[in-house]
Amino acid sequence: MIDVINLTKKYGDLTVLDGITETIHEGERVVIVGPSGSGKSTFLRCLNCMEDPTSGSIIFDGEDLADMKVDINRHRQNIGMVFQQFNLFNNKTVLENITLAPWLIGRKKVKGRAARAELKAQITARAHELLQRIGLDDWADKYPSTLSGGQKQRVAIVRALAMNPKVILFDEPTSALDPEMVGEVLDLIRQLANEGMTMVIVTHEMGFAREVGTRVFFMDGGNIMEQGTPQEVFGNPKCERLQNFLAKVL
Amino acid sequence: MTFQQVTLSLAEGFLENCRLFLETLLFSIPLGLIISFGSMSKFKPLSFLVKIFVWCIRGTPLMLQLFVVFYVPGLLFDTPMRDRMLAALIAFVINYACYFSEIFRGGIESISKGQYEAGQVLGLTKTQIFFKIILLQVVKRIMPPMSNEIITLVKDTSLARVIAVGEILLAAERFAGKGLIWPLFYTGAYFLIFCGLLTILFGYLEKKLSYFKS
């Protein structure tokens, strides 16, 4: 689904990603772990070109996203992303947060007032469905500042879902949450996993990584140092750095 | 000279102040937005030039700028500025656009990067993100400094008298020249009432925008 070829990212002299080649397949749930500064968030953000690669290719839907000529916005509609800091639109209600992008993008494709009204109704109905799913439909007309962190993150996840993406990237989705709210967010991600959503997750929740991941990357120094099934990576770590890392976090 | 006659005569002058005020706002806000984009440009020569320009305008008195706009075209190009109001308007628009641009820049840069990124990852264009997500949050943030600056503008309009625009203080000074001093002090009432109305308006707008937090 996403082919990463020789991906390099440098900030000046600092090499953050050091020539990574990897493929993320459909239906996979890739979990990326590693010490801070290892490049895992940068790797994730290169997948939808939120960081422009210094060199290398990101092949998605037959096009190289690293190519500046490619319409990146069109591809981003198919690659959802969830942030550590939620990033709900402050000036939009919960419902508008979910409907804004589908509406702005969808309305260009339909002509005529009736067709647009129908589209709007569809998008709104779908948003309510998604909110019901996470038990927040009563909050549809509230503004993000009134929500708890866990609620915000769940809204952010269904906002990504509303675009019907082919893959969702999660950038430390629970790191900014109070401990008692981590569970509700992980539960939702787990549900999506069970439904077969392709996802790439950067996380510090090792238990969750183990349970949800189909494949685990251990990153350090801008490289994927070791990878395998959760059993292999967590149960039988081969490289010394991974062993040290696991000794600290487990 | 009756009280009524003075009131009317001053009101006529104050109408010029109001005109200068409104027209300055009308042109300096869009121009200020353009200047703020210039100063935030990633193209360094452009942002450098814009910053130098803003420095020059903010670093010199508005009164001096009025003189420059009014006299320099005649001195250098032999095309004297005949329309005093137009000269005042040009000076005010440039001056206030520079002040506004700094407020806009501060407001735009204070919006967290996450608001842009959330729009980008959904596939929205930069224009859509700016107009649908960022702009209103910026407006809310800059309301207090803008109301400050706009209230200053009301009073600054009386500076236009240095190039003999027939504004309220000039009108009052004419009375003073004839030995009538009190109209000079009376002008304060016009400014007070106008600024009072503006204060109420800005209070209302701030309240209107309090439905969300950012």
Task: Provide a descriptive summary of the structure in words.
The complex is a heterodimer of chains A (250) and B (214). With 250 residues, chain A is α/β, with parallel strands linked by helices. Chain A is 40% helix and 24% strand. Chain A is built from nine helices and ten strands. In chain A, the strands form two sheets. Chain A has a six-stranded mixed beta sheet, sandwiched between helices. In chain A, a hairpin with a 2-residue loop joins strand 9 and strand 10. Helix content of chain B is 80%, strand content 0%. The mean pLDDT of chain B is 94. By secondary structure, chain B is mainly alpha-helical.
Write a brief caption for the model:
Chain A has 250 residues and is α/β, with parallel strands linked by helices.
What are the salient characteristics of this protein?
heterodimer; A: 250 residues; alpha/beta; six-stranded mixed β-sheet; four-stranded antiparallel β-sheet; 9 helices; 10 strands; 40% helix; globular; B: 214 residues; mainly alpha; 0% strand; flat
Placed side by side, the strands forming the largest sheet of chain A appear as 6-7-8-3-9-10
Structural class of chain A comes to alpha/beta
Helix content of chain B: over 70%
Average pLDDT of chain A works out at 92
Largest sheet of chain B: none
Look at the helices and sheets of chain B and give the structural class: mainly alpha
Q: Which range does the strand content of chain A fall in? A: 15-25%
Order of helices and strands of chain B: HHHHHHHH
The most extensive interface, with participating residues per chain, is: A-B, 30 and 22 residues
Low-confidence stretches of chain B: none
Distance separating the two termini of chain B: 56 Å
The geometry of chain B reads as: flat
Backbone CA Rg of chain B: 21 Å
What's the gyration radius of chain A in Å?
19 Å
* DSSP strand count of chain B: 0
Largest sheet of chain A: 6 strands, mixed
